[in-house]
Amino acid sequence: MNEEQIQMLDGKNKILLFRRMKDQGASAAKLIFQTEHTFEYERELDAIVTKDGTVVKVGELETEVDIEAIAAKNDPVGSMLQSAMINGERLEIWEVNVDEDLADDGKYPAVYAQGYLSSWAPTASAEDESEISSTFIVDLKPQFGFATLTAEQQEEVQYAFKDTVADDEDESNGDVEDENTED
To answer: Exposed, middle or buried by CB within 10 Å (0-12, 13-18, 19+), for 136?
Structure first.
């Protein structure tokens, strides 16, 4: 393989979206100011020594998602997640890789799971921003596929380039040619 085919994945391109199971009529939403998350897959393996050699007994898959974010004022998703934790409500979670190079027909690679938050820990440091730490425990096995992002979800990920003129003056919708392109 040549180097053009192999590229690093940027962690900043992987975002988490959430929705309460009872709200499936609404789109999933992004927790604001996510800083880090870890999708952790774990399986217990027991080595059993026999007279013929060691055999391995494979346990069930356990999956959890550790979530870190800066707390935001008036974030409806943060409030919903805290409420879901306190009330033991079932949630849906998506880890969506918004890297445009990986998009397929407008959809992005994603991991989908259902489960519950087992913790919700807001911090309040005197010198730093207030942070939220949480752990999502996955029920059954996560599913892999492609997710569609609405225009609103895409705006939450990153704002698009805007031109300096008023929107009604610019018919090109912000498209600017790169002057550094060689002919």
So the answer is: buried
CA 102 to chain centroid, in Å, comes to 15
Instruction: Enumerate the H helices of 71-115 as residue ranges.
Output: 76-87
| pLDDT per position as a tens digit, 88-125 | 999 999 999 888 888 888 788 999 999 999 999 999 88
In a domain, 49, yes or no: no
Does residue 164 sit within a domain? no
CA distance 21 to 32: 20
Instruction: Say how far residue 163 (Cα) sits from the centre of its chain.
Output: 30
Mean pLDDT of 54-78: 94
Domain limits at 114?
A: 11-44+56-156
Edge-to-edge strands of the sheet including 53-70? 29-30, 14-20, 91-97, 107-122, 131-148, 53-70, 34-50
